[in-house]
Model the fold of this input.
Amino acid sequence: MDVRGRSAEERKPPARARAMQHVLVVADQDKEVVRQFEERLRPWLEARVERVDFRGDTRELVRERLALSPEQAGRDLPGLVVVLGGDGAILGVVRAYADHPVPTIGINFGRVGFLASVPSGHWREALEPTLRGQAPVEPRMRLEARLDGAGGAPVGAVALNDVVVARGATQGMLTVGLYVDGDWVTDYRADGLILATPSGSTAHSLSAGGPILFPAMDAIVVTPICPQGLSYRPIVLRDSSRLEVVVQSSAGITTLAIDGQGFFPMHEGDRVRIQRHPVPYPLLSWEGLDPYRRLRERLGWSGVLAPAPAPPRGAHSDAGHGGVL
Done:
């Protein structure tokens, strides 16, 4: 370890993506600003990359890929996915390529943008090195969840952000038991329980009072949602922990949510087992990224608030295209 307290492993330069020949652009075309931006991006990419595919509906992409066999899903994969949208679109792409992770970079046109790291006003300076294979890779830890219920065969799913067990909107309090590595921790009487990765620590967990973890960390955050007991607090666990959440009692149907996009019903006695997925997902960053800017702007630290994306009507510069982080 050097005098600054960093090990040789920590001083290694970040991993880099390879040069790209096949790029898939996934655009949230529900947003007018994205449709207009895509018109500019298309010829720019086609002049630099051998093959460029465009998809305008993330949900349709997810449905199509989930219907493929494992063998089919591994064929003809792009070398890079460029997402035009917000964090929801990123999560959709990650879900679509869950079994065959593809380097993914997000150009932010959403309201938050913790996962979509590139401000839309800086898209050229981010994409040019990315196409050359010079973009830093941020391997993001994922969780795998297995639902065992009396209603049918076990169900498996993979989450980049979080696994949430929550009560129905019009039902009474939910009681769930938490076990870690086979040891009983406690029974939560609450609206639900969030099991989050470091990437997901700034999502649902944060709104429920959980801590902010740096995305490169290896840990699991357990955050109760509106617990009945005021002494319940979030817990940060080792990434090697094996968790089990059991529905002890519920006034109605309980829902297991995976990244806020995959939903499965749970009943009393059902249990979900959660552990770290062995393969992280390769999100790409860019050299100009200030890792703390997103926190300052999104959370309003020091009085700094991120501007809302504005349609680029009449704009002649990239900054006019909702250039926020």
Q: What stands out?
A: Residues 1-11, 308-325 have pLDDT under 50 and may be disordered. The longest strand covers residues 183-190.
